[in-house]
Write a structure and sequence with these properties.
This protein has helices at 2-24, 54-58, 73-92, 98-118, 123-144, 147-170, 177-193, 195-218, 231-256. It is mainly α.
């Protein structure tokens, strides 16, 4: 319980920082300078006006200086990150593996929303995450001498990168190279958990992406030529596998070999 609560609080803080990442990275702006400021009047935000979620509620979603509305997205990102961190703490417990997946969660939140906003998965986030992810996963590998799991993780990374690269070559209009790079990163993490999470996470990503596309067409919010970001579906599918690969795999196996 204590670990879950601590992870949730950490998620609130990380989520607050991710709001900065989501806003500034697509604009090639520094994450450090200037400090947080109102997008309307450019007044620096006081530290006590920058407390995750609480400040938004106290200020009633408005800048204290100019009264401009502060997007509801900010507290939702903070709460969503906190919920994801708490869920991961429950999933992995106090293990050496947990920090690696907390890092992936932060990257996933940032990339998903950036892809929705600008239809890009910035290299400045994705590429360094290969090194950070590998380093964080190396800690439990060394601690437990689990070299096969580490090798499987690297094999899955290469396999998903190759799969998506081939799809991007065959169907360049529906798959970008940002998706290819993200696929390798997700393969690294899903491969650590086993082959079942790899294929479930991959299939779930395509399924969710297809369902979103159909929903947009049905509601006439998009046409067949509209570019729909695929990164959020890939990330959602991967986390679905992180949490539910076991039950989903067991359910599918029962369909293939039903008992009498």
């Amino acid at each position: 319980m204590a670990l879950t609560l601590a992870a949730g609080v950490l998620g609130l803080v990380v989520g607050s920082f991710l709001n900065v990442v989501i806003h500034r990275v697509p604009r090639s702006q520094s994450l450090v300078r200037p400090g947080s400021q109102c997008p309307g009047c450019a007044t620096p935000i006081k530290p006590w006006h920058n407390v995750p979620v609480l400040s938004w509620l106290v200020l009633r979603g408005k800048c204290v200086h100019c009264g401009q509305r502060i997007s509801l997205r900010y507290p939702l990102v903070e709460l969503g990150t906190a919920a994801l961190y708490a869920a991961l703490a429950l999933r992995f417990g106090a293990t050496a593996t947990l920090p690696a997946y907390l890092y992936l969660a932060a990257v996933a939140v940032a990339l998903a929303l950036i892809d929705v906003d600008v239809h890009r998965l910035p290299d400045v986030i994705v590429l360094p995450s290969y090194l950070v992810g590998a380093a964080l996963l190396a800690i439990p590998a060394v601690a437990h001498g689990d070299w096969w799991t580490a090798a499987r993780s690297l094999i899955a990374m290469a396999a998903l990168w190759t799969l998506y690269f081939g799809l991007a070559l065959v169907y360049p209009g529906g798959m970008g190279f940002g998706d290819v790079k993200l696929a390798g990163l997700l393969g690294l993490y899903l491969g650590w958990l086993g082959w079942r999470p790899v294929w479930i996470g991959t299939l779930a990503g395509f399924t969710l992406g297809g369902l979103v596309g159909i929903a947009l067409l049905v509601t006439r919010r998009a046409t067949r030529k509209t570019a729909v970001p695929f990164g959020p579906a890939m990330l959602a599918g991967a986390f679905l596998a992180v949490f539910l690969a076991g039950p989903i795999g067991a359910w599918y196996a029962s369909l293939l070999s039903p008992t009498a």
